[in-house]
Specification:
three-stranded mixed β-sheet, 2 domains
């Protein structure tokens, strides 16, 4: 096979790959809402990342050519008991999370209701972390005191006194 034919085939494959990548970018539709069958996602290790990911999906990335979705997706936590009812309605064994695309067929009234009644998911710590602002050093220390019985307390008090005397004597001797 001549070298020119090989180059032509490679160019054709590269063009096909570029067209596939462009199609993937245009096929990426934003989510309208994410429904979780857990009442407090932040309290569950399996669901704790959802609020952060939803907030990150709304941020504009200058490297990414895909703009962020205009209507921000909403996170809808439901009671755990809703899992069985939702799974039954969808005719599947279990539902942990359900995502609905923006402008999904038949979901317009649900989208409108959710936009009117559910707030946007916020991650204030993430917004603060992305700002280039020096906030200074803020160190907080806490001391915890363990409860001890009277015998241990009297012995501990003597030891503390002795060690503090020794420390004072050692400090005086070194100066």
């Amino acid at each position: 096979m001549p070298a020119a034919d090989t180059l032509t085939e490679n160019d054709d494959q590269a063009d096909d790959n570029m067209q596939k990548n462009e199609k993937k970018e245009t096929d990426m539709r934003p989510l309208s809402m994410v429904i979780l069958t857990h009442p407090k996602p932040s309290a569950s290790p399996a669901h704790a990342h959802f609020p952060t990911l939803i907030h990150l999906s709304t941020l504009h990335n200058p490297v990414n050519t895909i703009p962020p979705p205009a209507p921000q997706p909403r996170l809808i936590p439901l009671a755990s008991s809703a899992d069985a009812r939702l799974a039954s309605a969808l005719h599947i064994p279990r539902v942990g999370a359900l995502a609905i695309f923006a402008d999904a067929p038949g979901a317009k009234s649900l989208e409108d209701f959710v936009r009117d009644n559910v707030d946007v998911t916020e991650a204030k710590w993430l917004d603060e972390a992305m700002e280039a602002e020096w906030r200074g050093v803020n160190v907080k220390t806490e001391m915890s005191v363990a409860k001890t019985s009277k015998k241990q307390h009297s012995k501990g008090g003597e030891k503390a006194t002795i060690s503090s005397k020794n420390t004072a004597n050692n400090a005086a001797e070194t100066q």
